[in-house]
Fold this sequence. Notes:
With 278 residues, the chain is mainly α. The protein has helices spanning 3-6, 14-25, 35-47, 52-59, 63-70, 79-86, 90-95, 106-117, 122-129, 133-137, 146-159, 168-175, 217-230, 235-242, 246-255, 259-266, 268-277, and strands at 31-33, 76-78, 102-104, 143-145, 202-204, 214-216. The protein folds into three domains: 30-98, 434 Repressor (Amino-terminal Domain); 102-184, no CATH class; 202-277, no CATH class. The protein starts with a helix and ends with a helix.
Amino acid sequence: xxxxxxxxxxxxxxxxxxxxxxxxxxxxxxxxxxxxxxxxxxxxxxxxxxxxxxxxxxxxxxxxxxxxxxxxxxxxxxxxxxxxxxxxxxxxxxxxxxxxxxxxxxxxxxxxxxxxxxxxxxxxxxxxxxxxxxxxxxxxxxxxxxxxxxxxxxxxxxxxxxxxxxxxxxxxxxxxxxxxxxxxxxxxxxxxxxxxxxxxxxxxxxxxxxxxxxxxxxxxxxxxxxxxxxxxxxxxxxxxxxxxxxxxxxxxxxxxxxxxxxxxxxxxxxxxxxxxxx
Length: 278
């Protein structure tokens, strides 16, 4: 490559110049105010906890431009540059190809905590991930590598609906930490720092009329059983998932006049086997 070719600018090409003439004839400006891009970058940094380099990699532009925008130092941008910056979201930063790039760790932390609420302890999760999950949960910083995020997400997507090996005593101890379970999080928002878990109405224990804002435990369990049957779970799988004694659940559903759910759940295994053989 000659020295002249190495110093050639994009604006020296005939294609660039032709496009410039066409846009100029149509009244389309190449440069635009940096205000919109600046507001977007500052919001991504301040409210979404995204890093300067992460935003730059997702947009496919220099980190120096993103840094200047975040500090309010740029006045003008190329129109294409503005469009690339405005297209950056949490999802696009998490989806970029650099495994060593930094991403917010809040989604990973929430996923680990949700699995813990399902009975998965650090001693169970750490070997599966090859990552010390206790360090992730208690990490002081706000970022970790995309590689860690992807590993945690893959495991979470695989076992989110499976009860972990923790004993009932351990699960009760974990419950005191107040971790939101998987069903409290939407996949679309679990990585958003501003999202909050949907814990639903609190569940009233014991008998009698529940107070405002609560539901009876029997009503909550009945709803859970109906949902799990729709997911194809057998009676054994349902009692295990809910952590309820089969006899207790049987009696509760009879008292609620929902014996139909018991019959449907107990014949689920037979129906599944028949459908597979058909």
